[in-house]
Amino acid sequence: MNLRIPGPIPVPEDILETMSNPMINHRGSEFKDILYRTTEGLKTVFGTKAPVYILTGSGTGAMETVIVNTLSKGDKVLSISIGTFGERFGEIAKIYGADVVYLKCLPGTAVAVDQIRNCLDEHPGIKAVLVTHNETSTGVANDLEEISNVVKKEYENKLLLVDGVSSVASLPTYMDLWECDVISTASQKGWMLPPGLAFISFSDFAINAYKKSDMPKFYFDIGQYEKYFKMGQTPWTPAVSLMFALDLALEQILKEGIENVYSRHKEIGQFTRNQVRRIGFSIFPEEKVASNTVTAVNVPDGRQSGELIAFMKTNYDVVLAAGQGELKEKIFRIGHMGKTTRNDIKPVIEGLSKYIS
Amino acid sequence: MNLRIPGPIPVPEDILETMSNPMINHRGSEFKDILYRTTEGLKTVFGTKAPVYILTGSGTGAMETVIVNTLSKGDKVLSISIGTFGERFGEIAKIYGADVVYLKCLPGTAVAVDQIRNCLDEHPGIKAVLVTHNETSTGVANDLEEISNVVKKEYENKLLLVDGVSSVASLPTYMDLWECDVISTASQKGWMLPPGLAFISFSDFAINAYKKSDMPKFYFDIGQYEKYFKMGQTPWTPAVSLMFALDLALEQILKEGIENVYSRHKEIGQFTRNQVRRIGFSIFPEEKVASNTVTAVNVPDGRQSGELIAFMKTNYDVVLAAGQGELKEKIFRIGHMGKTTRNDIKPVIEGLSKYIS
Q1: What CATH code is carried by the domain that includes residue B216?
Q2: Which of A263, B151, B212, B270 fits a 20 to 30 Å CA distance from A201?
Q3: Same domain, B184 and B227
Q4: Burial category of A153 from C-beta neighbours within 10 Å (exposed 0-12, middle 13-18, buried 19 and up)
């Protein structure tokens, strides 16, 4: 099976095999070594000196962790949405009692910094800006550096809270350089891991916000993670097998060099879009905002994504993803995170060219 | 390594190996089959016709799921604690705004039903009773059937909320027969799985409470789990590799027969306690309340658990657990969940007899 959805992604065989290692004591020295080593590796990938915590949960759990640890009930926050994951981020904030100002961009576009300026000027009480780095639902990447230059340099005391679920370890992300306050991500993306782990980092400014935050939390309380980290542990029993896999995946990523990982994603993204256009499809977003982790493609007029996806599965054993929400039948998506090569994409193109002909 | 802590437990090799299976689409038909098959298996083990949901998270996450889905802010609840996990259950309820009445029993004892009656009579407004079925911190099992007979038969409209993290799939647990409203459990115990998954079931009465619950929730919102279950999915990306393992573990448990699994745990628990006593140690709890999943043993006078545990690790490659909280140095614990045999326990006894001699 050629699994080409935007996560879970195919996991290299040697990483899968580490998960068959026998269980260990999650409060023992062997686990401590793994926790400390992987945390250092994660810091390198995040581009940060700030603490990074490892949670057992999905990307959505990580997004909730961002919200409940930095915000208080009634806090005014700007929720920038360029697709379903952006909407989810704002929804979580609202459920926990934040006063959410919504900036909803057209599907297929990235947010323009003038839109952000307008919102921040109109609502000077905004304490935090929630933004999706890479929106897999529409195949669009926001320009996080540009956004940060506005939120952190043109304004004061705003928390920049980033959903990096599908960007970190795939797209250039420099937490400290870009002054991001929280970045959260999940294992089943560019990390080349199965789902089940999430990683989250908090700047000093975010940790100050944590100290004042009154949103209820227990499982996702990063104060507990910090306390147990000092003992070489996680507060709650972690997904030990996935920690073995993380250990090896980080070794491979760091050996390759994170900048090389970014280049590889850029190359395969560009290749995929070029090939898709060459055989007569059109890309859903504009080229300049198209994501290098997932390509969103317009379904030809008069046809539906469900039919295309079934054709590709039946005839080519290629698994693609439909659109989400209103875009469900209008677009389909090709994932190319992790160690995707041209040889993984070529059969997809071959199948799609048969479908369209 | 002979891993004898009360979870994670040693996982059979064939179950570990399933985790090396390639990733699949978590929104595809193959996953749907696994989800439906494992959910049916879980229902059999829980002894329920009610829905059982599979979460990615630890046992603590499952405990939070119990609280935030059934309670509302200001609800009066009785928190029965016979150890650190009982305390944690009450603490989560308090953090989310419940009005918690504490019934704290002496460490090493089980709760007496008269204590429960007294609390419920004194506080007629109590809406829910939180109880730990099996307290691994002290090696004590509460008599859940007896507790249910009081809470559900002598009183009306009380929710019986059970932390079954270390009991389900090890100790007799009959959710429907014993009228439990919610039972939560986690994979790294009698299920013979690595940590990372949690399972939770809600009675009709608990689902009615869910509909009125105003505690904030998103990741753990069981309404989302129910909605996606109908499509053969989990709402958030699940730990797919652990689902492969769950599928095989349940196949093995059901093939053996859950009553046989209970008998096996009873036998090995009894064997362990007898052997421990035979070589001159004393068991921390009284025999009649001692758990068949973990044996808590008194450290000989004038010595400390840390020293004993280091001795066992260094000389016998046996990994034991210390006590928790105030009991840290006073007791040590021997786990015997899952497929523990006499041959796993014998080297432990051999080492302990050398230590004490």
Answers
A1: 3.40.640.10
A2: A263
A3: yes
A4: exposed
Per-residue pLDDT tens over the stretch B109-159 = 999 999 999 999 999 999 999 999 999 999 999 999 999 999 999 999 999
Which of B255, B283, B313 is a domain's end point? Answer: B255
Quick: pLDDT tens for B145-169: 999 999 999 999 999 999 999 999 9
Q: Where are the alpha helices (DSSP H) in chain A?
A: 13-18, 29-46, 59-70, 84-95, 113-122, 144-151, 204-212, 222-229, 240-256, 258-278, 305-316, 342-356
Chain A hits for B242, CB-CB cut-off 8 Å, are 196, 239, 241
Q: Which residues of chain A have pLDDT under 70?
A: none
Name the residue among B23, B196, B236 with its Cβ closest to that of A239.
Answer: B196
- Domain that residue A292 falls in: 2-7+258-356
User: Are residues A318 and A343 part of one domain?
Assistant: yes
Q: Among B255, B287, B309, which residue terminates a domain?
A: B255
ipTM of this predicted complex? 0.97
Residue B14 lies in a domain: no
- What tens digit of pLDDT does each residue of A137-154 get? 999 999 999 999 999 999
Q: Chain A residues with CB inside 8 Å of B305's CB?
A: none
User: Among B92, B56, B46, B81, which Cα is nearest to B201's?
Assistant: B46
Q: B341 and B218, same structural domain? A: no
Say yes or no: B112 contacts chain A, CB-CB below 8 A.
no
Q: Is the domain of A212 the same as that of A321?
A: no
